[in-house]
Amino acid sequence: MIWFFRKKAPKPQADLEATQDVKEDLWVKCPKCESILYKKEMLLALNVCGRCNYHFKMSAKERIAKFLDEGSFTPLGIRLRSKDPLGFKDKKPYKARYDEYVQKTGLDDAVIVGKGKLENKPVCVGVMDFSFMGGSMGSVVGELLRALFEEAITLRYPVIVFSASGGARMQEGVYSLMQMAKISVAVARLAEARLPFISILTDPTTGGVAASFAFQGDIILAEPGALIGFAGRRVIEQTIRKKLPDNFQTAEFLFEKGLIDRILPRHLLRFEVATILDNLISRP
Ligand SMILES: [Zn+2]
After folding, report:
1. How far is the CA of 94 from the centre of ligand 1 (A)?
2. Tell me: the pLDDT tens digits for 217-274?
3. Cα gap 129→125, rounded to integer Å
4. Residue 123, SS3 per DSSP
């Protein structure tokens, strides 16, 4: 139940439509190098700063449009919404907050799951969206990911999941923590079926998502500079009473420590993941 907020040679694709959700601003400031970027250009560069390689967050819809073969994606078509098992209320009721995010993002919850093709290879794909309640994992996210793994087993497709999450959804308490175990079982079932799971960690991948399926991939990839970890830096420093290194909980730090297989810039993801699948999937 940990939430993180951080202050914060591309391969352009011709269609801008999937990335035209944001029309209001022409310019955007890079939080890393502080350059002022022309938004259209930045979107064409897969939301990456051309000056310093800072990877901006991507919505799940943008990610699907840019990662999979054009027009190949079909959602699993399962419509679910949280039943608010705790009747949770803080400044406003969870139900009202949930409705607001559905309206604002056009999503049912913080993940999109479905089937598609990657360089002509069939795949099952789950993409989390940080803009829906910080990408938090509640019962709906858990159930959709479970269904994705089950579908992959039925179809004998590999699974690719992009994580972008602050962790378990605190408004659902223990019900959200249960999803960690439930998805872990689904991941194990996929492994028993001898099918690969590629986990791609994007900024941020933290809390209950990092502590469950995100680190259970057969191959674990990450985008440059992504914040990845369980508890926040301050909590850990206060617990162990030690100063942590500056790059602690970055993709680069975790790669150095052997927890991540590769860090891949966004423009290489399509090609590299397709190559990995070629090597993992046995041919007849
Ligand atoms: Zn920059």
Report:
1. 36
2. 999 999 999 999 999 889 999 999 999 998 999 999 999 999 999 999 999 999 999 9
3. 13
4. strand
Prediction pTM value: 0.90
pLDDT band at 23 (very low <50, low <70, confident <90, very high): low
Write down all domains in the chain, each with its CATH number in brackets.
57-280 (3.90.226.10)
Asked whether the beta carbons of 82 and 109 are under 8 A apart, the reply is: yes
Q: State in Å: Cα 56 to ligand 1 middle.
A: 9
| CA 216–ligand 1 middle distance (angstroms) | 31
**d(CA 39, ligand 1 centre) in Å:** 12
Q: How far is the CA of 201 from the centre of ligand 1 (A)?
A: 20
Residue type, 152: A
Distance (Å) from CA 253 to ligand 1 centroid: 20
Kindly list the protein residues that place their beta carbon closer than 5 angstroms to ligand 1, a single-atom ion.
30, 32-33, 49, 51-52, 54
Closest to 90 measured CA to CA, from 177, 174, 175, 171: 171
Compute CA 246 distance to the chain's CA centroid, rounded to the nearest angstrom: 24
Span from the CA of 36 to the centroid of ligand 1 (angstroms) = 8
Tokens (6 digits) for 43: 């979107």
Task: Tell which residue, 191, 199, 195, 130, has the closest CA to residue 157.
Answer: 195
